[in-house]
Design goal:
By secondary structure, the protein is of the alpha/beta class. It is 42% helix and 11% strand. The protein folds into 2 domains: 4-300 and 356-462, Alpha-Beta Complex (Amidase signature (AS) enzymes); 301-355.
Length: 479
């Protein structure tokens, strides 16, 4: 491996085909230093990101300085020098937190929360921030602030959202790991669209990630997108409240009772290609010796999703209130997107009893789901109801009366785990006829992340995806 001063783009792309564990091994073995890993990531970003627009902020020089310091200190951190991207909503020292919104300034943040501190202590070096839709409120990454992020499998298609920049960057090999946050599917949706692994941990399964917020603390969970299960498992163990928690490293001999649910929470059938991808995944699980049977969620899906939509609207109303205090005399329409404003207005028009219904749904879920999971270890469902949408389908300028039903129908499967505080993982096990990824989602009861990760290792070995790369990536023929 060449010294970092003589790295070529070909070298950088070859490094980019390695996961975080293998990139870290280059430093530990002395084949490359931390500065080399960062220079390689910068070369990849400069070559590929003009087409993808996965980064909302670049921090190349601070990253170079941080890597050089790791080399001078002969750092022995497990992931010393491995490049990563925090999401634009994650406070990271020395970078702005704009959350994809024109209402936010570019003021640099002074401090990060324990989640960031844990990852930095392990040696990860941030090379910038990943793009996201305004305040994470949309399932596509097309903020009016910019950039519009494109799917590395097809530039005409969306990478999903809200962690769309993170998933696109990892899928293309710009960085091996990138932070994602999930309040209604925002890790799992882009993982499915981009063909990467994305774990949404259960409630209270990470150290504090952000400032306290009544709704976000309830709904949002955080994790690392990656192309390998071991990188995701490492990220989960590293940021768990139990310091030094052992990392899941291999499949389990335990055979699981896997329930399969094909229909969405409102009873709609998925797109035929999504249905077929889930059926193939179920057959694979059965071939591996797991017990597979069709089941139904023990909840009123329509009432549940109505409650979720109402709570989601209150998130937008909070964002509007916060922006109003920040923008001075500017018009709200010049600072916030049409979708955010319309969703916030929807919340203000709701009767107070709508919040009662939200709280009733949340209060009933632990009892309903724990009884359900007493007879089923894991549930397999689609991640989304259809393959990745084209750019513009879920853009913030689409009128609310069209955008609301179409987007929430597409994300029909993911909000349950956010309201319930239970874990779920998206695995890149399917592809559409025109070569777009289709993820499979496995969900489990509270505290069962290790079960999901062990199953993910098993499926990764049985149906490997490591050599499957998108057209716009470090492994593309042109590269």
């Amino acid at each position: 491996m060449p010294h970092h001063d003589t790295l070529t783009r070909s070298d950088a792309f070859r490094i980019g085909r390695l996961d975080a564990h293998d990139q870290a091994a280059l430093v530990r073995s002395g084949q490359l230093d931390a500065a080399g890993l960062i220079d390689a990531a910068i070369l990849r970003i400069e070559a590929l990101d003009p087409a993808l627009q996965a980064l909302s902020h670049r921090a190349f020089e601070p990253a170079r300085r941080e890597a050089a310091e790791l080399d001078r200190a002969h750092a022995r951190a497990p992931m010393a020098g491995v490049p990563w991207l925090p999401k634009d909503s994650l406070d990271y020292p020395g970078m702005p937190t704009r959350s994809g919104s024109r209402s936010r300034s570019g003021t640099l943040v002074a401090h990060g929360h324990p989640y960031v501190q844990r990852l930095v202590a392990q040696g990860l070096v941030a090379v910038g921030k990943s793009a996201m839709p305004e305040f994470g409120l949309l399932a596509s990454t097309e903020p009016l602030l910019g950039p519009v992020t494109r799917n590395p499998w097809s530039l005409a298609h969306s990478p999903g959202g809200s962690s769309g920049g993170a998933a696109a960057a990892v899928a293309a090999g710009l960085v091996p790991v990138a932070h994602g946050s999930d309040g209604g599917g925002s890790i799992r949706l882009p993982s499915s669209c981009c063909g990467v692994v994305g774990l949404k941990p259960g409630r209270d399964s990470t150290v504090r990630v952000r400032d306290r917020h009544l709704v976000e603390d309830l709904l949002v969970a955080d994790g690392l997108h990656a192309r390998s299960v071991r990188d995701v498992a490492w990220g989960f163990a590293t940021t768990h409240p139990q310091a030094g928690r052992p990392m899941v490293r291999a499949p389990s001999a335990r055979r699981l009772r896997i329930g399969v649910i094909e229909q969405g929470l409102r009873g709609a059938a998925p797109h035929p290609e999504v249905r077929d991808a889930v059926a193939r995944t179920a057959s694979l699980c059965e071939a591996l010796g797991h017990r597979v049977e069709r089941v139904r969620w023990p909840i009123d899906g329509d009432a549940f999703l109505t409650a979720f939509e109402n709570l989601w609207s209150h998130l937008a109303a909070d964002a509007v209130d916060a922006a109003t205090a920040l923008i001075g005399g500017r018009r709200l329409e010049d600072a916030l997107e049409p979708w955010t404003l319309a969703l916030g207005a929807r919340a203000r028009a709701l009767p107070t009893r709508a919040l009662e219904d939200v709280y009733a749904q949340i209060a009933g879920l632990p009892r309903q789901l724990s009884a359900f999971y007493a007879t089923h270890d894991v549930v397999l469902t689609p991640v989304v109801s259809a393959p990745p949408p084209t750019i513009g389908t879920f853009a913030p300028e689409v009128p609310m009366d069209a955008l609301m039903p179409t987007m929430f129908a597409w994300i029909d499967y993911t909000p349950l785990q956010n309201m319930a505080g239970t874990p779920a993982i998206s695995l890149p096990l399917g592809m559409s006829a025109d070569g777009l990824p289709i993820g499979a989602m496995f969900a489990a009861d509270r505290g069962q992340e290790d079960v999901l990760l062990a199953l993910a290792y098993e499926l990764e070995a049985a149906a490997p995806w490591a050599d499957r790369w998108p057209a716009h990536s470090v492994a593309a023929p042109a590269a």
